[in-house]
Amino acid sequence: MQFDFDRMPPEAVAKLLETMPELSVAPSALVGVVAVAQVAEAGGVTVELLSVEVREAGALVHWRARSERAIAMLVPQISISDDKSTAYRAHPAEGSGDERSWTGSLAVLPTLPLGTMLTIVFESFGADERIQMPGYIAAEPIAGPWRFAIDTSDIRKP
User: Fold this and answer.
1) What is the distance between the alpha carbons of residues 115 and 117, in angstroms, rounded to a whole number?
2) What pLDDT score was predicted for residue 96?
3) The domain spanning residue 88 has which CATH number?
4) N or C: which terminal CB in the chain sees fewer CB atoms within 10 Å?
5) Given a cut of 70, is residue 1 above it in pLDDT?
6) Which carries the bigger pLDDT value, residue 37 or residue 112?
7) CB contact at 8 A, 31 and 155
8) 144 pLDDT exceeds 90?
9) Rounded distance between C-alpha atoms, residue 67 and residue 140, angstroms
C-alpha cells in the first residue's frame, strides 16, 4: 500500500504513521541490500528468502513461496531476532499470488544494525484476518518453521 504523504495534511501523516509505523519504511532512504537467496522447505511449502532491503526507518524482507497443493491466500507469521537482542516487529507490506505461489514483502521495525547475525523464521502461513471478501474461506494454517540466517555485514551499499 502506497501513500502520497506530500498530498496529505501533516497532521494526517503524523496520525497515520503513529498507527501504522511500518508505512515509514519504504519511503525512507536506502542504506543497502543484503542478497539472501536461501531456500527452506516444510509442510509441502518451499519458501525462498530473496533479499533484505535495509532502509533508514527499518527494512523490507522480500520472499516467495510455492506449494505442492492448492491453498487459499496466506500470509506469513514470522519472528525475527539477532545476536544483539534487538526487539523487532514485522508487518505485511505487500503481497500477491495464486493458489500455489505467493510473493511478498514484510516491513520490519526498527532498522537492522549492520554487522549483525539476523535470524528470520517463517513460523507458519495462515489466513489474513483482515481479508473480508464474499465467499472467502480461510485455509488451515500451514506450520513451518522455515528458518533463515542472514549476516547483515554482507550488505551492498548504494
Assistant:
1) 7
2) 81
3) 2.60.40.1630
4) C
5) no
6) 37
7) yes
8) no
9) 14
Cell numbers at residue 85, please? Answer: 537482542
Report yes or no: 63 and 43 within 8 Å, Cβ to Cβ: no
> Residue with C-alpha cell 526507518?
57
Q: Which residue has the cell 503524523?
A: 14
User: What is the rounded CA–CA span in Å between residue 33 and residue 36?
Assistant: 9
How many domains would you assign to the chain?
1
Q: Which amino acid is at 76?
A: P
Q: In this model, does residue 136 exceed pLDDT 70?
A: no
**Whole-number Å distance between alpha carbons of 109 and 128:** 20
Query: Which residues are CB-contacts of 89 (< 8 A; sequence separation ≥ 6)?
Result: 22, 108, 109
What is the CB neighbour count within 10 angstroms for residue 127? 17
Query: How much of the chain is helix, strand and coil, in % rounded to 5?
Result: 15, 50, 35
Q: Quickly state the pLDDT bin for 83 (edges 50, 70, 90).
A: very high
**What are the residues facing 75 on neighbouring strands?**
126
- The closest alpha carbon to 9, from 56, 17, 28, belongs to 17
Mean pLDDT, all residues of the chain? 83
Q: Which domain holds residue 84?
A: 5-154
| Per-residue pLDDT at 128 | 61
Distances (CA, A) of 78 to 90, 118, 122, 129, 156: 7, 13, 4, 16, 24
